[in-house]
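Task 17 of the worksheet. Students: predict the tertiary structure of the chain below and write it out as structure tokens. Keep your answer in the requested format; marks are given for formatting as well as content.
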Amino acid sequence: MSLVVVPVRYPLTEHSKGTLEAAIEEARERDADLTILHVNLYQDDRRVTRTALKHAVERAFGPLDFARYVVRRSFLVEQAILDEVAGEDADVVVIGHKQMPRWRRTLRRLFGTPDIESFLRAELDCELISVPGR
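Model answer:
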């Protein structure tokens, strides 16, 4: 079965909801599982729980029986996302359009490549979908 991964902010912003909506649609079209990922930064005091994330998503979209909710801790959001995508062998990553420049900067620092989609395809064998903001 295919896997779609979507990183989101918590609490869910309108932009996160738009990205999540696109990821849900993508997962349904592919008959795929969906991993909804939030990254708690070590440098922040706020810690989101998996239960809180699940409740927020279900309030916005209803129950999603094909979804898995994951909360990771990291210093870098992008690194945590890459680790999750690689660890779960994801087929698709859905990110918000506003996140694209941030990913480019991070990947350029880490791997010397500004082309995120090519990097993900080459290194992680996965497709990247960028969702325009609302």
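Marker's comment: Residues 14-30 form the longest helix (17 residues). The beta strands are 3-7, 33-41, 67-74, 92-96, 127-131.
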